[in-house]
Amino acid sequence: MTTAQDLMIVSLDVAPPRPVEQGELSLALAGAELIDLTEAGVVVLDGERVTPGRASAPADRLLADAASSLVRREPYESVEEWLWRRGRGLASAYTARMEADGLLTHPRGRWLAARSDRSEAVDSPARRRAAERWASAEPVLAGLATTAGLREEPGDGFPGPLTDPVATVLAAVGDAVTELTAVQQRRSVEDSAFDNVWRGL
Length: 201
Known about the structure:
Elements: H1 3-13, H2 22-39, E1 43-46, E2 49-52, H3 61-68, H4 79-87, H5 90-100, E3 104-105, H6 110-115, E4 120-121, H7 125-135, H8 139-148, H9 164-200
Antiparallel strand pairs: 1-2, 3-4
Helix pairs in contact: 1-2, 1-7, 1-8, 2-4, 2-8, 2-9, 4-9, 8-9
């Protein structure tokens, strides 16, 4: 299991303090991938630049896809550039892959379909592992969940120290989510103004 898979399961199992957009979740999933790749030695963060490491690609398919997409020549991508590029549609990709692997299921039946169109995590070792990380407020998963809006910002911070690469990625995810939210709000205001113009004609 990967941190991104754990985050995906958590996103389906918890009741967030506010509705979480797919774009926000996708950015956090891209951050989770980058953290796992860094900890595995596939990626080395040189400041805020994502540089290739010496380790081979991981076995997980989506994480291997992420590794194969690394920019391997200078100037290397920044963490922010990685998040925006890799994060595009990533929540949908994880949903499809995890459904194919039997980790998520899509509710069937007339009454279930009417109730929800979301996937659900099946009872599995993967779900229990994600639940354990969530219950213990494991710093990496908790940090990613907070930046995605799945949990409130804790007043006393997260337990345990964060390595510099993890802190760098979490900060970049937070900035990207803030930027995405601002863009969405601006579009909403513009759409509302456009609708008002049409109503006034």
